[in-house]
User: What shape does this take?
Amino acid sequence: MHVSFQHCDQSEQLRLDERYVQPGPLRCKLCGALISAIDVAGAQSWLETQTTRKRELADSGQLATRKQSTQQSDEDIDRDGLSAELAACALLCPGSLKMWCRAAESSKGNRGRDLLRRWTGFKKPVEVKHTRYHDAQRGFLLVRPPRQTPGRMRVEYIDDVYYVLMVGEPYHHSMIGWTDRQGLIRDGELNPVPIQRGQRECWGVHWSKLRPIGELLAEVGCGGKFGALARWLADLGRV
Ligand SMILES: [Zn+2]
Assistant: This one.
């Protein structure tokens, strides 16, 4: 299982079973540039296994689901989401890919904390959102109400996390921007995309209003060993 990316006219591969020596986000080994697009086709069989597992959980009633699109099957949505999340983990915290995989293998849903603080080194968890297409009209970062909540979309349903938006489809994804709770409330709007039959309301922002990924990395609160301990404890508090 591996992921790969291109930079400086070279293709680099990152195997999930090897310990990635450098902490921090994925960078080109030659020029040090941040990598924002990644190919996760090398994880295809793992993604299929996990997509099937999630469908089986849903079919047996152990996992609540909601119809998110009329154009795509639930299975396609699951695969898109997991593939995009794997790509986001490889870009932001490649050293934690193995731990992310283990968490995904045992997870029944992890709203608001797709990537933990102790993996990324960030001050808040990262929630990964994804969309296949983005252009002048399409490509929104959308937040919907949590499962088992009644009624309309509410501002309290926007989590205090860093939201990142991945675009593309399995198995090629790019990280196109990010925002936080405050930014999403300020720049977003209620139901920027039409509500489909059986769907709930949402709050969202067009990708063109998101902030560049480099700014998210500049926000990283490292804080040395104490920061690492604080992040570890903070993650535990939300388990
Ligand atoms: Zn390079």
